[in-house]
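User: Hi! Is it possible to get a structure for several chains at once, not just one? Here's what I have:
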Amino acid sequence: MRRLILLVLLFVSLSLEAQEDGFRVTEESYNDQSVEMADAMRANGKIYVVVAVIGVIFAGIVIYTISVDRKVRKLEKEVFEEKP
Amino acid sequence: MKKNWWKILGVVLVAHALISGLLLDVPRLDILNETIRNLYFHVTMWFGMIALLTASVVYAVKYLRSGNIDFDDKSISFAKIGTLFGMLGLVTGSVWANFTWGEPWSGDPKQNASAICMLIYFAYFVLRNSLQDEQQRGRVSAIYNIFAYAAMIPLLFILPRLSPDSLHPGNGGNPGFNIYDLDIKLRGVFYPAIVGWTLLGVWIATIQFRIRSVSRALEDN
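Assistant: Yes, the chains can be modeled jointly so their relative placement is included. Here is the combined structure:
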């Protein structure tokens, strides 16, 4: 158990040390406009998000309707084409 | 796939209405603000309803001329989805009115007339369910369908325009949406949206009809 704790602490200290002389995340990196992010999804009052949600719902309904359509076609084949 | 091109077209057109209708520029108008986009959804419901109920009455006449029960099945399928579109039109209209006219139901002549129109079509379904014999049901409901359609046209297109105080555009001395329709951007979404919603309604109606004819074939066997 002690060894395990020691090992964990060791790793934590390692990562801390690594951060000290490596790259650091600061407040500034949140405002760095030179890096491109998915800003379009947050622009214009986030209307794109709503469009995406509506698109997903519509796609779901269409896929469901297609599956119903196919099931009916299967039934039609069974009923109308296999008459004795 | 060849037979289904119109289903794909309907889905594409409605998707165009959903995406372009929310993202493209619209004229900035007082009171309406962004709700002018309802033109692509609320108004198209009514256009779709008219188209579907017209199909219903056409099949009702065809049934009366031929006595072929398939036409009666088509007629009821189109009437059902048409009435659904009408109900959605009423509900979406109430939501829109709540935020632009101040209350969901202001007793506007066009609101009242479309509600009466819905009641007339509800009576059609009650009438159908009250008759047992297939051919009798087909004949009576086809005749009622013709009367219902004949009542709907003046209720929706003539009486609201005659009344002096309607809130709807194009009625009671208000300018019609035509003024805004002249905007090519609105037209570019509005007209495809009408076609798209109508095709979607036709698709659902054909599924209904096919289920009916399958179950009829099963009963007959």
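Chain A is about 70% helix and 0% strand. The first helix of chain A runs from residue 2 to 21.

User: Great, thank you!
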